[in-house]
Amino acid sequence: MLSIKTANPNDEKVLAITEELSENLYLRFGSDGKNSFQDWQNDNSKFVFVIAELNNEIAGCGAIRPIDQNIGEVKRMYSKYPGKKIGTTILKFLEDKAITLGYTDLVLETRVKNESAIAFYQKQGYKIIPNYGKYKDRPEAICLGKSLNQNS
Q1: Structural domains of the chain in order of their starting residue, each with its CATH number
Q2: At a CB cut-off of 8 Å and minimum separation 6, what does 29 contact?
Q3: Given this model, what pLDDT does residue 94 score?
């Protein structure tokens, strides 16, 4: 049984999955992604962190942080077990939560080398967009975005 729930990323039980994600990213791309995940400390009400539990085990995570009033950024997406719809379920939960928080769009960054992530997001309706923010002049980065407008 897969369930998604909001959590505190600093919770001791949750740290194992975010550390596993960081280790995985570092081994694959030489960067652990932790630098752009410090906003939780601000206790911003438009910030959301979720975990996926599969058979009472934390098997994935994901987050949204605000870029501005209307745009949220998807961060720290991770699924421990491929092929179990964990990532899809987390992302759908985050998108629904983003709508309730008043976001109109979601954006994200991944590495150009991370072809599986790019394909995953495109399958979920995300389109390649110009690199934004700190990713603007970073050729190793690729950015994607999706409108949450129900009419589009």
Answers
A1: 2-147 (3.40.630.30)
A2: 111, 113, 114
A3: 97
